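User: tokens in, sequence out, please.
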């Protein structure tokens, strides 16, 4: 990986991790409904970016369904789950994105899984189960399941992007038009599912709209543009290890802005998840090894 791309790859988990924490700030201090927050996030992204990229003619229907899976369903599940969890715990559950992506890549992209990556997947899931078994979560596992569901749909969206678009769009073009389609989907979802939207808009203040600005312009616009650029140049297994920095960025932000702390058992579970994910994301596939040997 080129030095500039290496630095860009490090910036992605920092940008996303901080955005995850700031979303929790909006839930706690402004009572922003999660899906509505995501709708404003993508509305801002679309309004700012769509004027600078060409319409992807011939790909609109595919981008519509990519938006349904990788934006509307994913963020609807993940951030609704975040609303009921500490941000520092939710970001650990989000790490299931890597095992889910490896599993789906093996099924749909014919990527060789291998026994080491299978062990890594099992460890990651065991770590999440350990976290979910903590007393403060017993009787209310729905937020954990929602975040895990969001992680699955994120992985499914990445497979759709890799398989359907085949690097035919630039990063900014892709995220801009995903945002265009995701915005009405999310507003409709919020209207159907959530309550108190108008009150939250009236009471958002600088905290709420500041979070919207960060998530729309930095987390989504810049972060995903970098991610899609890297995904288009490098193999998934080369890029995914950098997302191991996500918990570091998010937990640091959660301690600073929300005063959250992990218990000993939660720290152990988190370490198991991260170790399992590291095996999944750093284990080279057979195709990658053959390419290096060629």
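Assistant: Sequence out:
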């Amino acid at each position: 990986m080129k030095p500039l791309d290496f630095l860009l790859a490090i910036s992605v988990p920092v940008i996303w991790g901080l955005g995850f924490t700031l979303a929790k700030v909006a839930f706690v201090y402004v009572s922003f409904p999660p899906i509505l927050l995501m709708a404003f996030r993508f509305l801002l992204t679309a309004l700012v970016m769509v004027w600078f990229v060409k319409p992807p003619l011939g790909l609109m229907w595919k981008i519509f369904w990519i938006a349904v899976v990788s934006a509307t369903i994913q963020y609807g599940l993940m951030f609704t789950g975040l609303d009921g969890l500490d941000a520092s715990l939710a970001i650990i559950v989000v790490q299931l994105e890597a095992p889910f992506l490896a599993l789906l890549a093996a099924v749909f992209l014919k990527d060789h899984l291998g026994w080491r990556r299978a062990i890594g997947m099992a460890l990651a899931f065991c770590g999440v189960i350990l976290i979910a078994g903590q007393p403060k979560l017993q009787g209310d596992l729905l937020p954990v399941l929602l975040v895990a569901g969001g992680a699955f749909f994120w992985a499914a969206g990445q497979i759709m992007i890799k398989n359907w678009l085949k690097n035919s769009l630039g990063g900014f073009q892709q995220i801009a038009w995903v945002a265009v389609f995701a915005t009405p989907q999310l507003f409709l979802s919020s209207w159907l599912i959530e309550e108190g939207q108008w009150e939250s808009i009236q009471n958002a203040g600088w905290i709420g709209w500041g979070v919207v600005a960060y998530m729309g312009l930095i987390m989504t616009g810049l972060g995903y543009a970098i991610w899609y650029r890297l995904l288009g140049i490098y193999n998934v297994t080369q890029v995914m290890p950098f997302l191991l920095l996500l918990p570091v960025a998010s937990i640091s932000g959660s301690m600073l802005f929300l005063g959250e702390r992990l218990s000993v058992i939660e720290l152990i579970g988190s370490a198991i998840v991260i170790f399992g994910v590291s095996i999944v994301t750093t284990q080279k596939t057979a195709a990658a090894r053959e390419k290096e040997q060629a």
